[in-house]
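Tokens help. Consider this.
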Amino acid sequence: MQNIHHLHTSLKQISVVIGLAMMLSINPVIAAASKPAIHSIVLVHGAFADGSIWSPVITRLQAMGYHVTAVQNPLTSLADDVSATEKILRRQTGDVLLVGHSWGGVVITQAGNAANVKGLVYLSAIAPDSGESMLDLLSRLKSPMHGPAPDADGLIWMDDAKQFHQFMAADMSIHKVRQLISVQLPIAQASVTDKVEHAAWHEKPSWYLQAIDDQAIPPAVQQSIVLQIGATTCTIHSSHMLMLSHPDTVAKFIDEAARTATQSNAQR
């Protein structure tokens, strides 16, 4: 009986070993299937900011395994910002998901025509149509215009802490607002009238994260843009600077877009 018991125990151990071996051989396949088809993420900032504004989102996306690059827009013209983005796109390996915030949405609408861009993600962003400028779009959608007048150099700054807090970052501390003002880049007045030659969202799948507490781009305007471009959308209670106040949500939204972009392209 003792021999039979030992034999039974040995058989169970062998069975466990075989089972573990099968799991180890299958798991890499499952893991590979769960990985996003797009590995490279390019982030494009808007006015009154620079590429460092993406830092909280970058750390989260990198932890997910993505290769992430933030463009440094000069904000001197649409053509200059598109050129800066295209230079970054040419440095990427494989397919790219292009993400734009605010004015950055105008930039990715044009730069997104690059062949390696497989999807466009708009974060409380502007997405003009072909032959349309940011100002054209906002005027067509009857959006209220906020912001100071340009200075003698034709540059628009938002360096009043109260104004910045109200329109850009109402859910953030005034201490953080002052930090953002200190590193902001102004946008050239001429940029807002520069027209997109061809809107990439006509051919590329798009996603739009709506910040419904936004005072810079009103929720109704964001919703009109979503309907115009046919974007997959989600809403969040956030100010305009949603990548700073809700980096977890923003990173997860980008991750979901990266995981479904290839499938969306195949269906178009």
Q: What stands out?
A: Confidence is low (pLDDT under 50) at residues 1-33.
